[in-house]
Amino acid sequence: MVTKPAAAPPMLVSGPESGPCLVLAHGAGAGMDSSFMEAIATALAGHGIAVARFEFAYMAARRDGGKRSPPPPIARLESEYRDFLEQFPRPVTAIGGKSLGGRVASRIVDALRTGDRGPGLVCLGYPFHPPGKPEKLRTAHLETLRSPALIVQGERDPFGGRDEVEAMHLSPKIALHWLADGDHSFEPRKRSGQTLAGNIATGAEAIAGFVRRLQSTV
Predict the structure, then answer these.
(1) What is the CATH number of the domain that holds 213?
(2) Which residues lie closer than 8 Å to 213 by C-beta, 6 or more apart?
């Protein structure tokens, strides 16, 4: 089942109508219906996980003929994410997103918890730092994260590759799942012998297992 309600913000819901549900926001440059987001949602639906994708206002404006503007300050995106969750009509097992979307979710997820109960976090290609600027880390809040989290990351992601990320001091609540030779969109090089489809499939399997384990604690 795929639905797209008329009300803002634009949204796509894929997968079963009951059971575990993962909310995902898009990355900085492509919307909720990008080929990456479509592939992840389809793969997760195959594992029985519902995926709700939505768009921040700056991205939605492009669909209405607006100019191609960059993302607004992250505080505004955090507010938009919270607003979406408040309007969403079913229980949410985990929140997250691709790159920027995952970063935004990571900054609000702890505030959604009451004691040991609340959503988990799923990040798809977390932007640990801008490409080529490893000194500009975006990890301070990840060092003290209280929510269970899964970061699915390509091994050679320019926003944070395996060697550098595994040397970081991150919260013990964060699990890392590495995709063989993957870049920021999980695409491997041909010479690696890996495929994008294979990385999407193994990433989705890891996410599905994580989300199912969270279901009893939401």
Answers:
(1) 3.40.50.1820
(2) none
